[in-house]
Write a structure and sequence with these properties.
Helix content is 43%, strand content 17%. The protein is α/β, with parallel strands linked by helices. The protein has a single domain, classed as Rossmann fold (3-Layer(aba) Sandwich), CATH 3.40.50. A five-stranded parallel beta sheet has the order 3-2-1-4-5, with helices on both faces. The longest helix is centred in the middle third of the chain and has 17 residues. The chain is globular. The protein binds 4'-phosphopantetheine (PNS).
Length: 161
């Protein structure tokens, strides 16, 4: 049976670190759904539609991956799409506590999906979306950290285009 994994996140915006996890995930699973969900602890910079577009744009012609936004629980969405795994990237020890809580919560809510963690390559290990937004807001360059389409959108958001 083909194995589908859900890769959920805020993707506000997608970074090269996320892309790294997607490519690694596709080497393990038959297909992936990148799920753009809501993190109640975060106030997003980009709308859901913008985030979906940026991820789709960044993926280009990469096969076997779909981008879908969802509201509500990640576990429910995983069940709805028939995912057998929830994929997450793990960078530093600081990620661990949140990931641990989320994994156990998702396991209770949908035991059929196993959460699988992958680590990005060393050059992406420090990267996160908040840092990227911080850098751009202070006039810094993020070409090395995000896909090209995202650079443009960030510049427009922060009024630098
Ligand atoms: O990229 P993020 O912000 O780390 O992604 C977090 C996300 C969106 C996957 C998480 O907040 C989430 O699962 N939100 C949906 C609501 C939910 O299922 N909450 C219970 C698990 S924390």
């Amino acid at each position: 049976m083909p194995r589908l994994a859900l890769y959920p996140g805020s993707f506000d915006p997608i970074t090269n670190g996320h892309l790294d996890i997607i490519v690694r995930g596709l080497a393990i699973f038959d297909s992936l759904v990148v799920g753009i969900g809501e993190n109640i602890a975060k106030q997003p910079l980009f709308s859901v539609e913008e985030r979906v577009e940026m991820v789709r744009d960044a993926l280009g012609e990469i096969p076997n991956v779909e981008v879908i936004s969802y509201s509500g629980l990640t576990a429910k969405f995983a069940e709805q799409i028939g995912a057998s795994a929830i994929l997450r990237g793990l960078r530093a020890i600081s990620d661990f506590e949140f990931e641990f809580q989320m994994t156990l919560a998702n396991r209770k809510l949908f035991p059929k999906a196993e959460t699988v963690f992958l680590m990005p390559c060393l050059s992406n290990v420090f990267l996160n979306s908040s840092m990227v937004k911080d850098i751009v807001s202070m006039g810094g360059d993020v070409e090395l950290f995000v896909p090209p389409g995202v650079v443009e959108r960030l510049k427009i958001k922060f009024g630098g285009a």
